[in-house]
Amino acid sequence: MPQSVINRYRVVWGVPVFHGRSRHTLDSKGRLAIPARFKEVLEHNGGDSIVVTNHDRCLWAFEKDDWKIIEEQAARLPLFDPKVHAYIRYFISGAVECQLKQGRITIPADLRDHARLDGEVVLVGCLKRFEIWQKELWDEHEFPRAREEFAGANEALLNISF
Question: What angle do CA 21, 92, 138 make, to 5 degrees?
């Protein structure tokens, strides 16, 4: 891989990861351009699709191979646990594979409705996944909340050695 491409994405433990935040426009058909640095991570790992599912007030997007691991782990959970039922009914059943075509994916209407995606969105790199947020919700609520909670996170991370 050319050095110019390698420098655009981050590598953690030898694996390229999603990082950074960017603003994009979701068109009326639900098509969303994927940032170049995210596409490079997918291409590096041979992916031509992304698995997108609902989570809280946003969508989570995974590489197909990472999603397979999540499904395998979910299949091992206790069959009769009500919390497992909720997890599978909400998170796992919401998953849709979205093909990457011409650098874009099409997000199905039900997932767009769940996250209230319309017009401007923010893509947030979170290492093994990225999140898709409605811009106003991200700007007015989620980013300020994350910034506020960051101070508390420092305390929790004190015992981690780098």
Answer: 25
